[in-house]
Each structure stands twice: as structure tokens, then as C-alpha cells.
Specification:
The structure holds two protein chains of two kinds.
Chain A (H helix, E strand, L loop, with lengths): L1 H32 L4 H5 L2 H5 L3 H11 L5 H13 L13 H36 L4 H15 L2 H15 L20 H35 L2 H8 L4 H38 L5 H10 L3 H29 L1 H6 L4
Helix pairs in contact in A: 1-13, 6-7, 6-9, 6-11, 6-13, 7-9, 8-9, 8-11, 9-11, 11-12, 11-13, 12-13
Chain B lengths: L1 H8 L1 H31 L25 H36 L2 H16 L2 H11 L3 H12 L1 H16 L2 H8 L4 H38 L10 H12 L5 H28 L7
Classes of the chains: A mainly alpha, B mainly alpha.
Chain lengths: 331, 279
């Protein structure tokens, strides 16, 4: 059935590409629809008033005001396909450079939070389900409910208040110490400054995965195979190892890859609170400042992560679950 | 006395009482908050930067505004906006979900593609985009929240309807010559409505959280309005100087409201889902 599998993959790749193209069009359209005048937003009313018509016309051209949207989009798309993402209007640098710097800052944060929340969430979910209705379950469930009702940015503020302002053990913001030259920043410094944002993201990421894993695992614990294994007198560990683990892993993996989008969304908020110069903060300033090329690139990159994640989850499914690998899409 | 005890032994009735209580609590909060809007704007420099105590339970800020009033007003604004936007979003989800499941392959392909597209862009980013497209402000947030929350519920409804359509009793009803309208009214809607309703209530907390987040980032309501996101983003500037109450008190209230919505939603799900009656 390898042919089936290959076809399936090809279809998925095509689909992702189509989705990416649609994402770029939607982003572009939304930005173009905006009634906010980029000149007013970035240059300011006063400065505009004192400028000559020529200067204003030049600025209008720079910010792409009044240009034909279709033409503008097509020329953007052509450049983008060749790897040229244009020039960021706010940073006055090629978008590629801006993204490279911001992404390398964010990636540390995102990767840590993603892995931590995935592993911890899965384990806590399993633990809660195996002790359903008892103390560990209650604690874990309570934690999850409280965290999922807490706004991410407020949690970030609280942690900042605790560790940054009261205990003074962790820095208040930024990804590097203030007043140190770029060359003098060590990896230790960067990790030290990323602890709080990463912690916030991990704490919030856990709850979703834990709750879903718990539900799935409870289902498994009620199945006949687990009943039989109880009757045989197997230990909890054996039940988990031989019956629970693989079955609970499948939905957890889907969730884990689907959570990329949420973690990215959380990072936008968290980076704003800690003024951590990452991709999320760049997205906010690009949105506020109508920086079209930068925002397009950020949207596309983040959705590439999301679609890529879904795609990987699909692949992993085949590896973990032999039924899907053999049976094609007939399951 | 005995009657009351018996009444509370019935889980269904217990849950119902809980739902009514929390719903009325939220309603009261919403109404009280609306009346606090004027009091929230009063500035008085003779009482600025007070720590929480009596008579200012939540303290006052650097302009001498009563934080309790501001919090209540902000919450009522957030709750109203969140409920309204979530309701719109849920209706979109219901319509698109049903269309997708019943109107043939083309409609299904288009709507599924749309759902995937919406879910592919990180939610906050999508909110930012929609809000910017509508020129920020109240309209931007309201439309942003209303237009971006439907995909997961629509997917759920679509799957449910698709599954229902294949059920023997519906197939038989169709073969017996019942009209589409009859099928929808008698067989499909009664199954979908509980799901829809639960989805709607569980959408409220999300909508409120997203509303406050987007306002916090500066894309939402303008700075004069006492929205909870604005209050928290202002408090960020004063955090370093040790004015903890500006951030802590409104945040606790927001989290509590969201949790109340969440728990109510879970309770309603238990009420409406016959499968969990015997838990």
C-alpha cells in the first residue's frame, strides 16, 4: 500500500501550498482594506503638514498608498517566490534580515515551551486519568481549569511581578542585558533573559494537552482490554506501558502539533509583556504601524509552521499507528 | 428540610441551580459594571496611588481613579462584547457546518478549505489582521472576535451532521419519503442543538480572553474606555515601581469571570449530554 501513502503525501503537500497562497491573499486583502492611513500612523499629522507635496507623494509611494492592490500583490508574490520578501517599512531593512534576527530570538522560547508543555501535559494528563477522581486528578484538573481561564498576558505580568520586581532574581525584560554591546552578550545571558517568557508559555501550554490526554486516557481505562489487564492483576505501570501509552499518544500528537498555533499566539502576548524582541513583538509593531511586507512575511512564516506541524503530525501518525500506514485512508 | 435535601441529591437539579446561580451572577456583574462606567472616569488627585483598603477595595491609580469601578466597568464591557461576538460566531459556525455537511461536495470542499485556512493563521495574528482591516477600535475588536471563533465549532457540527446523515433511522425516514425539512427538524436539529449550545457557552470564555488580549496589545478599544485589557496594559508601566494592585486585582477578577463562564459551560454540557447522566 506504499503507493497509497505516497499519493496521500503528495496531496497533502499540494494542499499546504494552496493554503499558504490563500493565507497570503487573505492577509494582503485585510491589510489593504484597512482604513488606517499608514502615513498618519507613522509620520504623524504635524510632520505631514509641514511637508511639500512632492515629499508627501514620495512617502505615499514608499508606504504603497493608492497603488493598485492587484498589481502590488502580484509583484510581491513574484518577489516572494524568488526568496525576496521585500523591505520592512518600519525597520528600513530587508524583511529577511529582520525576520532572521527575530525568529532566532523567538525560536529558543517557542521550542522550549513547546517541548516542555507537550511532555509535561501528556504525563500530567495520564497521571490524572489513572487516578481518576482522586487527589492527583483533582489537583491536575484544578490547575488546568485555572490556567485555561487565566489570560496569558496577565500570567506573564504576575510572574514578572514575582520574580522580576519582588524577588529580583530574574530580569524584567528584553533578550539581552541593557548597556552591553551585541558582541558581549553570551548564550548564558540570552537563556537568563528567556527563562520567564518560556516559563509563562510552558505553564499555559500544559493545560490544554493535559485535559485532552486525561479524557482520552479515561476512555482507555474504561475499555475492555484494561479491565482484562486489571483482572490479570497487572500493575498500573504495566497498564500504562502496554495499553495506555500508544493509544493515548495518537491524539496527544495531533494536539501537540496543533498547539504550535496557540504557542505562537501566546508568544505574541508574552513577548509584548517582557518586551522580548521576538517575532511576536515584531508582528504587533508591524500591525500597529501598517508595515505590510513585514506582517505578510510573519503571517506566512507562522502559518508555514502551523501547516508544517499538521503535516508532520500526519506523517507521525503513519509511523506510530500501523493501521493507518497499511490501510490508507479507509480507517 | 427533607424536601430540600432530596432536591439536592438529584444531580441534574443541583447542576441546574449552579447554572442559574452563575448566570445570574454574571448578569448582575454586567449590569452593575455598566453603571460604574461614569464613576470609573472620575479622577481625583487627592487620592492617587492608594493601596487596596477601605473605602477603595482595589486601590486607586496614578490619576486617582477608583480601580474597583474601573475593573467592574471594564469587565462588563468585556463580557458584553465577548457574549455578543461569540453568539455571532456560533451562528456562523452552525450555518457553515450544516451547509458543508448537506449541500454537496463543492460546498464541503470550499468550507473545509476555509476552516483550514482560518485555523492555519495563529489566532492572535488573525485577530490583529481583522482588527487592523476594520480600523481598530470597538468595531475592529467586535468583528475580529466574531469572525474568528467559528472554525472549530463549524468543524464539530459538520462532523456531527455527516455522521447523523448515515444513521439508519434517518436513512429509513428518507426512504419513507419524508421531506428534507422534516428530517432537519425532527431528526437532525434535536441532535445538533445541545452540541451547538454547549459550543456557544464554551466559546464565551475564549471570546472574552481574546478580546482582552487584543485590547492589551493596543489593537482594540481606545485608551479612554475602561476596558480590562487597557487597564492591564497601563498597569504594566507602573509595575516596576511596585504598584502591584493595578495589575493583580483586575486580573484576578477577569480570570474569575472567565472561569465562571467555563464552569457554567461544562455544567451545561453535563445537563445536555445524556451520556454523562450516570457519572
Amino acid at each position: 500500500m506504499a503507493k497509497h501513502w505516497g499519493q496521500h503525501l503528495l496531496k497533502q503537500i499540494l494542499r499546504v501550498m494552496l493554503l499558504m497562497a490563500a493565507t497570503s491573499i487573505v492577509t494582503f486583502m485585510l491589510m489593504k482594506l484597512s482604513p488606517i492611513d499608514p502615513l498618519q500612523a507613522n509620520v504623524g499629522q504635524n510632520a505631514l503638514g509641514s511637508m511639500s507635496q512632492e515629499q508627501i507623494a514620495k512617502l505615499r509611494e514608499y508606504w504603497g498608498v493608492g497603488a493598485d492592490p492587484v498589481k502590488q500583490y502580484l509583484s510581491w508574490a513574484k518577489d516572494f517566490c524568488r526568496g525576496d520578501m521585500g523591505i520592512s517599512l518600519l525597520y528600513r531593512q530587508p524583511v529577511r534580515n529582520v525576520i532572521a534576527v527575530k525568529l532566532s530570538n523567538s525560536l529558543l522560547l517557542l521550542a522550549f515551551a513547546w517541548v516542555m508543555s507537550g511532555i509535561l501535559g501528556f504525563l500530567l494528563g495520564i497521571l490524572a486519568a489513572m487516578y481518576q477522581g482522586r487527589l492527583p486528578d483533582r489537583i491536575i484538573k484544578g490547575y488546568c481549569i485555572i490556567i485555561s481561564s487565566t489570560p496569558t498576558f496577565w500570567l506573564a505580568l504576575l510572574l514578572l511581578l514575582c520574580f522580576g520586581v519582588w524577588l529580583k532574581v530574574l530580569p524584567i525584560g528584553l533578550s539581552v542585558p541593557i548597556g552591553v554591546e551585541a558582541a558581549g552578550v553570551t548564550l548564558g545571558d540570552r537563556i537568563y533573559h528567556a527563562i520567564l517568557p518560556a516559563l509563562t508559555l510552558s505553564i499555559t501550554g500544559i493545560s490544554n494537552i493535559a485535559l485532552h490526554t486525561r479524557e482520552k486516557m479515561i476512555e482507555i481505562m474504561e475499555s475492555d482490554m484494561v479491565l482484562f489487564s486489571k483482572a490479570r492483576g497487572e500493575s498500573r505501570w504495566a497498564m500504562f506501558r502496554y495499553h495506555g501509552f500508544r493509544n493515548a499518544l495518537l491524539p496527544a500528537i495531533t494536539l501537540q502539533f496543533a498547539s504550535i498555533s496557540e504557542i505562537f499566539g501566546g508568544s505574541v502576548l508574552v513577548e509584548q509583556v517582557f518586551s522580548y524582541p521576538g517575532l511576536g513583538q515584531a508582528a504587533v509593531s508591524a500591525g500597529l504601524g501598517s508595515d505590510l511586507p513585514l506582517l505578510m512575511a510573519i503571517t506566512l512564516i507562522s502559518s508555514a509552521f502551523v501547516f508544517g506541524g499538521n503535516f508532520l503530525a500526519d506523517l507521525l501518525y503513519g509511523i506510530i499507528d500501523p493501521r493507518i500506514r497499511r490501510g490508507g485512508q479507509h480507517i | 428540610m427533607k424536601r430540600i435535601r432530596l432536591f439536592f441529591q438529584n444531580r441534574r437539579q443541583r447542576v441546574l441551580v449552579g447554572v442559574i446561580l452563575s448566570a445570574s451572577l454574571l448578569l448582575i456583574l454586567c449590569i452593575v459594571g455598566a453603571f460604574c462606567a461614569d464613576a470609573a472616569r472620575v479622577t481625583d488627585f487627592s487620592r492617587k496611588n492608594l493601596e487596596p483598603g477601605i473605602p477603595y477595595l482595589f486601590g486607586t491609580d496614578w490619576l486617582g481613579r477608583d480601580m474597583l469601578m474601573r475593573t467592574l466597568a471594564g469587565l462588563s464591557l468585556s463580557i458584553g462584547l465577548g457574549v455578543l461576538a461569540a453568539a455571532v460566531s456560533a451562528c456562523i459556525a452552525l450555518i457553515l457546518g450544516i451547509i458543508s455537511a448537506t449541500m454537496g461536495k463543492t460546498a464541503d470542499t470550499i468550507i473545509t478549505f476555509l476552516i483550514d485556512l482560518m485555523m492555519g493563521i495563529p489566532h492572535i495574528l488573525l485577530l490583529i489582521l481583522v482588527s487592523v482591516a476594520l480600523g481598530r477600535g470597538f468595531r475592529g475588536v467586535a468583528c475580529g472576535v466574531a469572525l474568528t471563533h467559528w472554525p472549530s465549532l463549524a468543524r464539530l457540527i459538520r462532523a456531527e451532521v455527516l455522521q447523523l446523515k448515515e444513521q439508519p433511522y434517518i436513512q429509513i425516514a428518507r426512504k419513507l419519503g419524508k421531506s428534507n425539512w422534516y428530517l432537519a427538524k425532527k431528526h437532525i436539529l434535536p441532535h445538533i442543538l445541545p452540541q451547538f449550545f454547549t459550543g456557544l457557552v464554551l466559546m464565551f470564555p475564549h471570546a472574552i480572553l481574546h478580546e482582552s488580549s487584543i485590547t492589551f496589545l493596543g489593537f482594540g478599544l481606545s485608551a479612554e474606555q475602561p476596558a480590562i485589557g487597557i487597564i492591564l496594559s497601563e498597569s504594566m508601566k507602573y509595575l516596576v515601581t511596585g504598584k502591584w494592585w493595578l495589575a493583580v486585582c483586575p486580573g484576578v477578577m477577569l480570570a474569575a469571570v472567565v472561569m465562571l463562564f467555563y464552569l457554567t459551560g461544562e455544567q451545561i454540557r453535563k445537563l445536555l449530554d445524556p451520556g454523562s447522566v450516570h457519572e
